């Protein structure tokens, strides 16, 4: 239900439903983030991600991909700073970088105009698909 509201851009109903959930897991948190990304409300998606960290909810690959998309599309310079922080966290804590996270990082750096970082990420990926 939560995902359906987000897919339809009804983030008011999505948040209403989310707030009333007795148990919120990584899937429900990521669904809210994804809903904000789909509706191009990038700052709100990052705010939800920060709350996810605050409540010590483990992040998934899908969570990182969605948040990196936000950081790539934010007009403010803070998007680059936040994306770099997320990249650092992934590097320190997630072990091997998947193709999906690597691709999201390459997209992030490319959209932010930092191709040298995009090339570095590509060269660090163990499994490269073109």
UniProtKB/TrEMBL annotation:
What GO biological process terms are annotated to this protein in UniProt?
RNA modification
* Cited PROSITE patterns: PPR (PS51375)
Question: Repeat PPR: residue ranges?
Answer: 25-59, 98-130
Checking InterPro entries in the record gives:
PPR_At4g14850-like_plant, PPR_rpt, TPR-like_helical_dom_sf
The terms under GO molecular function for this entry are: RNA binding
Q: Which UniProt keywords apply?
A: Repeat
In its keyword annotation, does this UniProt entry include Repeat?
yes
Q: Pfam family of this protein, just one?
A: PPR_2
Q: What is this protein called?
A: Pentatricopeptide repeat-containing protein
